[in-house]
Structures are given as C-alpha cells and as structure tokens.
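Quick one:
INPUT:
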C-alpha cells in the first residue's frame, strides 16, 4: 500500500486569502479555524436566499418549551443548511435583575460550545 501526504500549507494559504487573520505564521487554535470554516460553509449552503427580519421576543413567563421552539423557528427562517442541521443548537440564558427581580430568559443559537479540558487525569473504574 502507498500513502500520499497532503501539505496543509496550500489549504492555509487559500483560507488566508479570504480571512486575513489566518495570514502569516501567527498561531491560531483549531476552534477558530473550525468556526470560520463552518460559518463559511453555512453561508454558502444556506437555502434561505432572502432573509426576513425576525424580532426577538421576551419569554414573559411562557413555558420554556414554547419560547425555545419559537426562537428556533425564527432562527430557521433565516438559516437553513446542512451545517445548521448537524452543528447548531440552542443555549438557554437566564438573567436576573437583582434590583427589580425581573427575570429574562432567552434561547440563542450556537454553533459550538467550548468546554474546559481536564487538567489532571482520572482513572476509569469498572465493575466486574
């Protein structure tokens, strides 16, 4: 069997033409690059050509399920691609105003969620 190697330099040079922040030899993390590529793919593959204006509504005490569905449906009015289908979701945010005791609950689209990595190793225990 024979294997071919592909140089990432050509890919990086092509990306830098469209995104100058990736030009040169500065270090970027893989999350930045992946977010840029997924966003670009989504924009190119978006099936919504005319994006309507969508007003964000407050939850106003309505059940989370209703507010989440309404927010997601509004998101889909402007965004429909395979990237949305595979990589996007919703994040629930709750903000409480301590002065007025007002609670604001929103559901916002997200492409990825960053999570911290463990800094120390843990052993996996199994039961026999």
């Amino acid at each position: 069997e024979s294997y071919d190697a592909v140089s990432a330099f050509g890919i990086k040079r092509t990306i830098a033409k469209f995104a100058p922040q990736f030009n040169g030899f500065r270090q970027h993390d893989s999350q930045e690059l992946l977010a840029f590529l997924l966003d670009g793919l989504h924009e190119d593959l978006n099936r919504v050509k005319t994006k309507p204006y969508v007003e964000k509504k407050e939850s106003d005490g309505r059940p989370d399920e209703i507010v989440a569905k309404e927010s997601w449906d509004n998101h889909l009015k402007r965004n429909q691609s395979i990237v949305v289908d595979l990589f996007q979701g919703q994040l629930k945010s709750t903000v409480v105003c301590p002065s007025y005791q007002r609670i604001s609950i929103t559901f916002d689209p997200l492409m990825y969620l960053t999570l911290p990595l463990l800094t120390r190793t843990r052993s996996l225990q199994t039961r026999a």
